[in-house]
What we know:
This protein is mainly beta. It has one domain. The protein has helices at 6-15, 99-107, and strands spanning 22-29, 43-46, 52-55, 67-72, 75-77, 89-95, 115-123, 132-144, 148-155. It has a nine-stranded mixed beta sheet with strand order 3-4-2-1-7-8-9-6-5. A hairpin with a 3-residue loop joins strand 8 (132-144) and strand 9. It is globular, with a radius of gyration of 18 Å.
Amino acid sequence: MANPWTAAIEEAVASCPTDVITYDTLELQHPALQDGEGNATPARIVNAVMEMVFGIEAGALFTPGATDTFAPSAFGAAFPAYAEGQVPRCDISIDNVAREFTAALEEAVGYSADLKAIFRQYSSEDLSEPCYGPVEFIISTVKVNATRITGSARVSNLSDKKFPTRVYTRSKFPGLVR
């Protein structure tokens, strides 16, 4: 199946103001990722060349409603492949991974827990909250080498996603009341 978003992405990029920059971020969550005191902590990265501070949405698992520093690292993902009867999957790759992060991923093999990746996109107009996301993925078949991590990602629980995602209530939309 051809890429269904090509025309929409072209339209969005063409209509975006040239002075607005979007920042793609990735948050990796796993029990093996811990701070110095042994507490679970996420690894947050931004697809940029320097550290950046972004606001985290109120419903996040770690530091909800606060700001946090995202480490710079190049990452990318291909558009998901679609096949009948299969959950869409895509490959995610993260370059220039720090040595301590690689060690944590190698330690993760001993856990029976999913490696989660949370994708968020921020706009340079407002860094206090994501302009897109969070979108949660489960990463499997992880491969680690000296400078790169690759894995196969799928939407965490596609069957539990409600559509449409907006809940229309009488208090938010008084025009619904007759």
